[in-house]
Fold:
Amino acid sequence: MRIDGIEPFLRYEGFLEAARAIHGRPVIEPAIVYANLLVPGQELAVHTDVPEFRGANRKLYPQWLMVVMHHSGLFDEYRMPIATAVGWFNDCHGGAFAFYPQGGDGPAATIPARANTGIILDTDSVFHGVDPVESDSPVPALRPGMQLRWDHGRWLVHDGDAVVARYRWDEIHFSISWKAYCFTDAEERRAWREHREEPGARAHPRSPGRGPPRARSPRGRASRSDVARAHVDRRVREVPAGDRSVRRTAVSPTLPGSVLARSKRAHL
Ligand SMILES: [Fe+2]
Structure:
């Protein structure tokens, strides 16, 4: 969805300048802006965002597979460096941004949700979440399917036609997320726009007898998700803490086509 008026925000120089510093890449291509609303009692569990690779993204493959690919470290040369900014526009009780700047084994840091403040980081790599949004009044039980609607200056939580909660703006946790691709130069951005350098053009010369067999659905033809899940089930093993080298052999090189074929040549 494109909403008129977002352009100045999308091209906000403060975000662009900070994004250049995140990955040390000067050419920034803003991609998307999200608006996020959380009501009291809601939180966002610690996670990393869904990354993107040249030739592989959430539109083509399962989101969890993209996350596994990044954390495996096997596909770094294909990863799209993305900077994400999170900004807040009201003061909120609770709902602090929690993140782990020294990695998942390090201590957490928090930034309170305060109007006209923000943070920019690589959310595909840095674990982060949102603390529970606090409330002075009892929090109603929420369930999937309820809707949040703006009505005469209040946010209303609807369960069908029934209104189960009413909130003022200052009780709502409102943030925006801004994401941008980061390139080393204009030529690299041009190659990305023209889908050059994507590894999907060449067929993967599989050797007979190598790699696990394809998973098959009951109708005899496997979906991408079935294949990916079968491969991860077969290949991912418990990795001893601190033994990062094991992770480089944990994922099958026969997963989606030539993206992984290149990785096989590079890492195995
Ligand atoms: Fe996130």
